[in-house]
Design a protein that fits this description.
The protein is mainly α. It is built from 3 helices and no strands. It has a single domain, classed as Helix Hairpins, CATH 1.10.287.
Length: about 80
């Protein structure tokens, strides 16, 4: 079990989509393995939620860029 702390917004905000996704996969795997204390599980859950939000931000941004490119191509 790794030493997990509360999510650091600055740390997570600097992650690329791939980095956030890969870490989210690791966090989910650790949670599924069990064996963590309640406190560790809560910290993992919180970090996972923050990582999922970061991935969603990237995906929303990518969709906006695609929509803008399509609109420009149609104009």
């Amino acid at each position: 079990m790794s030493d997990v702390t509360a999510p650091d917004p600055a740390d997570i905000a600097g992650l690329s989509y791939e980095q956030a996704r890969d870490e989210l996969v690791r966090v989910v795997s650790e949670l599924e393995q069990g064996g963590a204390t309640l406190e560790q599980s809560i910290a993992l859950w919180e970090r996972g939620e923050a990582l999922a939000r970061r991935c969603e931000e990237w995906l929303i941004g990518a969709k906006e860029r695609l929509d803008a490119a399509r609109a420009a191509a149609e104009a």
